[in-house]
């Protein structure tokens, strides 16, 4: 068996973070409303505890009242570990929309009594049904018959499942809108994504095969939330003040209800609500906290063995919406998050198929958040309210039964990701809708051997359960934490894409898995983890949504004969851009799951008759929008975690890249940059500008303007006094890894004179540690134009030849950002012209070039943007055309100069007009050149050419002044 590699420090730290921060919260998070609270009425209701038990329990409730009653009602259920306070913001929003809203703390949470049964039909679901009956008795609630209110139900995660279970068991529910929830809790916590049968035709279908792999990290977070008393469902909720009357009600120590509040020392009341808090274990509860004995036994059984026995499977099935979806006929809006390693898109997909089969109208919405990404933002919450408006009181337009999904794209200029919504007429595969279209994406890769180490340790890392929201901002950073360990992963790759490929759902692939002959194999089969990477042209791997599909292949033949299975990959929404590849990785371990304890060796290969990935495509109309969610912030983290995070940050500050995910696709951002030297001289002062992909930016300024100092700080050669430089989101410092993405020629290149030009380039590239085939030596040398001289020793080179060799070195590897300081020094006019074309072609590939030059005519012809510096300060920035046209002077070539001069001179705001042969020069002031052209055309003048009268040199001199000596 191959020798296992020693884990690197960053892998150890990442694994430690997963373990330490597993106490962070789960589920449905809501934003508090900034408007004045609506009228509320508190009530503690006595409900029967359950079949065969006489003692009642008390549920803590809050009724939110709209301005006009009677009105339809909406039940709002909270997430696991939360309480009625967790949904206060949503409840107030719905009340302002005119609904009577009832929020309550489920049994075992907040100040409600009883034990947690995980939405058992005889307990939590029966409680909700009793609340429906109570609503029917309230005079503010509209009814259709005695005991039958007009009522909808919504909630997220645990509360979303309650919505489905209630609708499936109580026909008085008229409409529902569950959010980021599950269909089958057994498959959510013990998934098995491999089958020998066909997979359903909906976009994110999963085969849901029995005997899955235990998702131990998320399951552990769930169980901890039911033990310790943290209101992890709402980090903005506040704990009661120490010594308040509520301390005795909840059975816990004062001031410990909300770790996020405790960490900041803020223990005030939130939103005027009563001071309830998350579930606290009653005294003497032991290891089970507030869980029922059945739930406690099930968790103990699966957590200690890693497998679910039949009793556990039956329990999880009984508390899952899948047990009642065949009875749900009410209009259902299913909202699921695209950033969710707990309840993926497959769970909403299963709910949609089953509820539609029962005859109910179903609308499906996938949004950019989830348990790892954030709760729905105001636009999506408004859609949910619209759903209830139409289906509870017949108001507004019919929201229909279509399908919407959000596509996160590149970063906007302000740093936020662009999000577009794709809308399809129906969810593919439902009812009469056609099944999902799947494109066959060929994969390459030979059969590979993978090792499961003893104890499954060390393990690969794909996600940080419960913490994705802290690093997601986007999914960009979250998707970069994935670590696959050598020897434990098989990889299969597609060719680079010629155009964008938009994956919308769960791809499938046929794999062959076999036992290595002569090696002992676990009796319960192979446990494997499949994931789909987006691989950029530079080799950077991103794991969309940090998602992974766990699967088990039982009974591998001892002779090594492979078993062929179809694996459903995680449901994702991901645009694979041109020149990017798709990579399928199949690993033997994953930190978030229970490991296969026994050592094993497997073979993994693509099915020879189907060596392709079946990628789901869902076309539709597109519209742009702002990100429709708030990031999850402030998840309840205990004080020791905060202290640990501070300590780790202090230790690693100088070594960290301090990535800003919102700038991960921006080549260069300089903000507040200053550089002072002893004696008080300030070379650069408060400089700020931004460079986008595909730009050729000219950095201009007279001698002493601070250009070279700025470029030296950009390359990490000197450190700024104030401010910062970020390249692709990484803060620049000496030795920063992101510097490998920059090709530079800032100061004289230190070539070895006794070696040839080619040898110098090869030596430089070897020092970077990158593969030789990524250097592109021939292309760079062709650009340099050295010809046969590249084989001569550098000591024989002229200054111009050294300059060209330095430019070739900067271009090696085709860096994403190229920085050139006076690149045309020593070049003759033909070479300057060639350089101009090279830089333009280079930027056209999506890469970025920053050029510092004193040749203004060349900058004007080469660059599309300029930054002008003078005495260390920014004096202008923008497009070259904008800078040149800044004076308002324009020149027109026309057929009738006299008529043109008369027409222009009659326009308001136009100054001096001069005729020069066929040319007419005019000072347009603030009048757009296009408006002047339009006026000339209306006057019957034929305009052959129109442009600015000034050159870049004129604009430059006006900006920096003649006295600069430029």
Describe this structure in words.
The protein has 966 residues and is of the alpha+beta class. The protein has four domains: 23-424, Rossmann fold; 437-625, Sandwich (Jelly Rolls); 666-879, Rossmann fold; 888-964, Alpha-Beta Plaits, CATH 3.30.70.100. The chain has 25 helices and 41 strands. The strands form eight sheets. Strands 1-2-4-3-7-8-10-11-13-14-26 form an eleven-stranded mixed beta sheet, sandwiched between helices. Strands 9, 15, 16, 18, 22, 24 and 25 form a seven-stranded antiparallel beta sheet that branches. A six-stranded mixed beta sheet has the order 33-34-35-30-36-37, sandwiched between helices. Helix 3 (121-136) crosses helix 4 and helix 18 (777-784) runs antiparallel to helix 19 (799-811). The chain is globular, with a radius of gyration of 33 Å. Mean pLDDT is 81; it is low at 1-34, 229-281, 472-476, 626-656 and 962-966. GO terms for molecular function: ATP binding; ATP hydrolysis activity; dipeptidyl-peptidase activity. It comes from Actinokineospora bangkokensis.
Features:
single chain, 966 residues, alpha+beta, Rossmann fold, seven-stranded antiparallel sheet, 41 strands, 26% strand, disordered N terminus, disordered C terminus
How do you describe this structure in short?
The chain has 4 domains: 402 residues, Alpha/Beta hydrolase fold, catalytic domain (Rossmann fold), CATH 3.40.50.1820; 189 residues, Jelly Rolls (Sandwich); 214 residues, Rossmann fold, CATH 3.40.50.300; 77 residues, Alpha-Beta Plaits (2-Layer Sandwich). The protein is 26% helix and 26% strand.
């Amino acid at each position: 068996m191959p020798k296992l590699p020693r884990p690197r420090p960053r892998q150890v730290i990442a694994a430690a973070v997963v373990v330490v921060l597993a106490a962070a919260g789960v589920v449905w998070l809501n934003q508090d409303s900034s408007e004045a609270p609506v009228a509320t009425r508190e009530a503690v209701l006595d409900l029967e505890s359950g079949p065969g038990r006489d003692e009642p329990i008390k549920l803590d409730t809050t009724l939110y009242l709209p301005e006009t009653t009677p009105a339809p009602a909406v039940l709002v259920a909270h997430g696991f570990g939360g309480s009625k306070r967790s949904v206060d913001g949503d409840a107030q929003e719905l009340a302002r929309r005119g609904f009577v809203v009832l929020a309550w703390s489920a049994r075992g949470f907040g100040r409600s009594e009883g034990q947690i049964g995980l939405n058992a039909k005889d307990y939590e679901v029966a409680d909700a049904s009793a609340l429906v009956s109570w609503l029917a008795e309230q005079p503010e609630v509209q009814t259709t018959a005695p005991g039958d209110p007009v009522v909808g139900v919504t909630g997220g995660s645990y509360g979303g499942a309650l919505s489905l279970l209630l609708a499936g068991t109580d026909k008085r529910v008229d409409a529902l809108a569950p959010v980021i929830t599950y269909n089958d809790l057994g498959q959510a916590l013990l998934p098995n994504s491999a089958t020998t049968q066909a997979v359903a035709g909906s976009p994110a279908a999963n085969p849901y095969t029995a005997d899955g792999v235990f998702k131990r990290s998320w399951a552990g977070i769930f169980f901890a939330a039911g033990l310790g008393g943290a209101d992890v469902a709402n980090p903005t909720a506040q704990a009661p003040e120490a010594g308040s009357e509520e301390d005795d009600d909840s059975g816990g120590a004062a001031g410990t209800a909300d770790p996020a509040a405790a960490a900041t020392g803020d223990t005030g009341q939130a939103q005027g609500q009563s001071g309830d808090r998350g579930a606290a274990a009653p005294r003497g509860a032991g290891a089970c906290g507030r869980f029922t004995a059945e739930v406690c036994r099930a968790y103990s059984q699966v957590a200690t063995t890693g497998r679910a026995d039949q009793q556990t499977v039956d329990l999880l099935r009984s508390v899952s919406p899948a047990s009642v979806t065949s009875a749900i006929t009410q209009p259902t809006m299913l909202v699921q998050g695209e950033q969710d390693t707990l309840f993926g898109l497959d769970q909403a997909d299963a709910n949609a198929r089953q509820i539609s089969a029962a005859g109910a109208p179903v609308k499906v919405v996938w949004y950019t958040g989830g348990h790892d990404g954030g709760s729905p933002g105001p636009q999506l919450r408004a859609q949910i309210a619209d759903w209830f408006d139409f289906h509870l009181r017949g108001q507004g337009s019919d929201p229909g039964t279509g399908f919407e999904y959000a596509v996160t794209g590149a970063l906007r200029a302000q740093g936020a990701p662009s999000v577009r919504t794709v809308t399809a007429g129906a969810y593919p595969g439902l009812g009469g809708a056609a099944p999902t279209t799947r494109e066959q994406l060929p994969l390459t890769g030979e059969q590979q051997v993978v090792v499961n180490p003893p104890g499954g340790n060390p393990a690969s890392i794909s996600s940080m359960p419960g913490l994705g929201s802290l690093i997601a901002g986007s999914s960009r950073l979250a998707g970069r934490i994935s670590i696959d360990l050598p020897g434990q992963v098989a990889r299969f790759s597609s060719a680079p894409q010629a155009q964008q490929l938009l994956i919308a759902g769960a791809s499938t692939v046929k794999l062959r898995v076999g036992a290595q002959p002569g090696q002992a194999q676990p009796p319960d089969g192979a446990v494997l983890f499949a994931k789909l990477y987006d691989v950029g042209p530079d080799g950077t791997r991103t794991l969309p949504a940090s998602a992974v599909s766990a699967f088990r292949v039982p009974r591998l033949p001892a002779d090594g004969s492979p078993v062929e299975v179809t694996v459903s990959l995680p449901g994702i929404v991901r645009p694979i851009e041109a020149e990017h590849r798709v990579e399928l990785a199949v690993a033997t371990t994953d930190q978030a799951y229970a490991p296969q304890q026994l050592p094993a060796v497997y073979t993994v290969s693509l099915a020879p008759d189907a060596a392709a990935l079946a990628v789901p495509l869902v076309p539709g109309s597109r519209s742009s929008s702002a990100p429709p969610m708030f990031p999850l912030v402030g998840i309840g983290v205990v004080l020791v975690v905060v202290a640990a995070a501070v300590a780790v940050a202090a230790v690693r500050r100088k070594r960290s890249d301090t990535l800003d995910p919102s700038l991960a696709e921006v080549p260069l951002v300089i903000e507040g940059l200053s550089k002072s030297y002893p004696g008080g001289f300030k070379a650069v002062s408060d400089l700020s500008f931004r460079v986008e992909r595909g730009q050729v930016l000219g950095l201009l300024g007279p001698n002493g303007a601070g250009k070279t100092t700025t470029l030296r700080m950009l390359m990490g050669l000197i450190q700024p006094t104030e401010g910062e430089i970020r390249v692709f989101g990484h803060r620049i410092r000496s030795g920063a890894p992101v510097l490998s993405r920059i090709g530079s020629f800032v100061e004289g290149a230190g070539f070895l004179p006794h070696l040839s030009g080619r040898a110098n380039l090869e030596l430089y590239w070897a020092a970077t540690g990158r593969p030789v085939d990524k250097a592109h030596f021939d292309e760079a040398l062709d650009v340099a134009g050295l010809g046969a001289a590249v084989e001569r020793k550098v000591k024989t080179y002229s200054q111009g030849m050294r300059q060209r060799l330095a430019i070739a070195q900067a271009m090696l590897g085709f860096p994403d950002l190229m920085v050139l300081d006076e690149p045309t020094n020593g070049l003759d006019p033909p070479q300057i012209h060639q350089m101009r074309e090279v830089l333009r072609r280079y930027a056209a590939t999506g890469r970025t070039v920053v050029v510092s030059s004193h040749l203004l005519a060349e900058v004007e012809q080469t660059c599309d943007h300029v930054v002008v510096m003078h005495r260390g300060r920014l004096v202008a920035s923008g497009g070259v055309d904008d800078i040149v046209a800044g004076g308002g002077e324009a020149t027109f070539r026309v057929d009738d100069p006299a008529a043109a001069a008369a027409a222009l001179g009659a326009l308001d705001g136009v100054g001096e007009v001069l005729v020069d042969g066929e040319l007419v020069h005019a000072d347009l002031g603030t009048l757009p050149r296009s408006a002047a052209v339009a006026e000339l055309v209306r006057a019957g003048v034929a305009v052959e050419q129109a442009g600015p009268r000034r050159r870049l040199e004129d604009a430059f001199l006006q900006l920096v002044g003649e006295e600069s000596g430029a």
